[in-house]
Amino acid sequence: MRIMNILHDSVVDGIGLRTVVFFAGCPHHCRGCHNPQSWNMENGTELSLAEVVEEIASNPITNVTFSGGEPFAQAEEAHLLAIQIRKLGKSIWMYTGYTVEQLLAEGTEAQLALLEQCEMLVDGPFQLAERDLTIPFRGSRNQRLLSREDILRIRVELEEKQGILV
User: Fold this and answer.
1) Considering its fold, how many domains does the chain have in total?
2) Contact, 27 vs 53, CB < 8 A?
3) In the chain, is it the N or the C terminus that has fewer CB atoms within a 10 Å radius of its CB?
4) Bridge partners of 165?
5) CATH classification at residue 138
6) How many CA atoms within 13 Å lie on the side-chain side of 45?
7) What is the pLDDT of residue 164?
């Protein structure tokens, strides 16, 4: 997988101390993005699943956050990583420029599998006009903090609205 950076002991990327995995590659290209160098999938370093798990496990007191770039752009690899992280007993937060509705309605199997590993999702693209430094764990007011229960509720609402299973 292509990784921009792994940062330990963050207090701004979720509740508590967190190890943040910054994935390379992002299709959203949000104006005002704080990490535009992550847009290009060729940036960053190619790391194996074992290398990333070892780095995360080296800090036993932190939980984990997937950020980017866009973790869902590397959903297959990120899903496998999430499974290993959960085996370590760590919680996983994820940041995405997609809305949960987009992922549920249009996501690939790998993206949906990755979403299932998430305990807290910060969804939606960063919008410069909505930038707000006073709200915790988000960059703009349009972004939502969604728990696993929120995601399930939205999924059920979409299924009922569309009359199909998502």
Assistant:
1) 1
2) no
3) C
4) none
5) 3.20.20.70
6) 8
7) 59
pLDDT score of 166 = 47
Residues 6+ apart with CB under 8 A from 61: 17
Taken as a whole, the chain contains a residue count of: 166
Residues 52, 54, 56, 58, Cα dihedral to 10° = -150
Give the model confidence (pLDDT) of 38-65 as tens digits. 999 899 999 999 999 999 999 999 999 9
- Whole-number Å distance between alpha carbons of 111 and 45: 22
Tokens of 35: 């990490």
Q: Does a cis peptide bond (omega within 30 degrees of 0) precede residue 69?
A: yes
153-159, Cβ contacts within 8 angstroms, sequence gap of 24 or more = 154/100, 154/101, 154/104, 155/104, 158/101, 158/104, 158/105
C-alpha to C-alpha distance for 107 and 42, rounded to whole angstroms: 23
